[in-house]
Amino acid sequence: MSSTASGRNGTWRNWGGNVAARPAREVTPASVEELSAAIRRAAEDGLKVKAVGSGHSFTSIAATDGVLIRPQLLTGIRNIDRNAMTVTVEAGTPLKRLNMALAREGLSLTNMGDIMEQTASGATSTGTHGTGRESASIAAQIKGLELVTADGSVLTCSEKENPEVFGAARIGLGALGIVTAITFAVEPIFLLSAREEPMPFDKVLADFDELWAENEHFEFYWFPHTGNTNTKRNNRSAGPEKPVPQLQGWFEDEFLSNGVFQAAQWVGRAVPATIPAIAQISSKALSARTYTDIPYKVFTSPRRVRFVEMEYAVAREAVVETLRELKAMVDRSGLRVSFPVEVRTAPADDITLSTASGRDSAYIAVHMVKGTPYQRYFTAAERIFTAHEGRPHWGKVHTRDAEYFAQVYPRFGEFTALRDRLDPDRRFQNDYLRRVLGA
Fold it and tell me: Which residue has the higher pLDDT, 289 or 166?
């Protein structure tokens, strides 16, 4: 199974390989009615219920020993409304399929994350995002959703219908019910020009405000143990289309970004002392390039090297200071970090538990290759992020609990009150939700 989570002998595992669960049973409903029935049957049997997408979360947010709902039959486009400029999709639709189907219809999402293996509901429920000056996370582009709640009833939510549920359920963590369909705002397909170029770490930090202000989508990767970054700016373009030539694309995106990178990770795992030298080489391997293509071909890229990740959102004005502290920590720690640190931004949004809720945000993501010990690095990084009132990505490794979230999310109590109303018996609870939302 390529990118999806795998199960052997009844054991479910996530993509990163760091979470496993043994559900009592698995259900693959083919309709909303079948899903409602499965939830009611679970209640009769006293079992908890969790839906799982492609398993791309590094937290145990989807793990359960009760009923595991797999949404792969709930896929496809239900409706395209060209007057309202919306598309309604079944929750289990992989983002890749959604992006390709929209492109065929001459439409696109405004912004997206950097991979498209996840399902529409899995990505939005955990707050998956790309980078953007004005355009926010995938969930912020939701105009309506359909939610099956703990008693098996179906709620339709939008700004007009059940608005208080809509305000929270766009990033609902699977705690409020099971999302069965999502209506996204779309726009006529457009072209993006990407400009990727190396830049010294100190220069990126010194110029960060300008780089953010001058580009619709700015992000960069810093290579620990070096003073080097690779920057990426994506801006709308009048054309012409100028995609990366196939052979060059294979060489840069597959061979260098995935193949050589994979080999470097193997060497680094075997001989950690070589990592700083490898980092110097790999941080210079990718040269500058520009290309122009339709959005999903610019925003997303393949990720073949499996990893484990922690990502925190800090207030945008705190990002430079946070990164300086992170670099100082890595430099003096004796840690050997072979994976670049990814930095992106998002504007404030109005979703209750969005990492960008009520504040302009910057994201800092730290990674370790799958199978290497990551605790020491992540613990030290998390100490820095939390000192800046960081909010961790709901689908990535963190150690925070409800007490912490009540401090960094002004509307945290709104979410938990809504959960009490929609799921009083905690049908959708698991260990992760008990920790992050409280019992």
Answer: 166
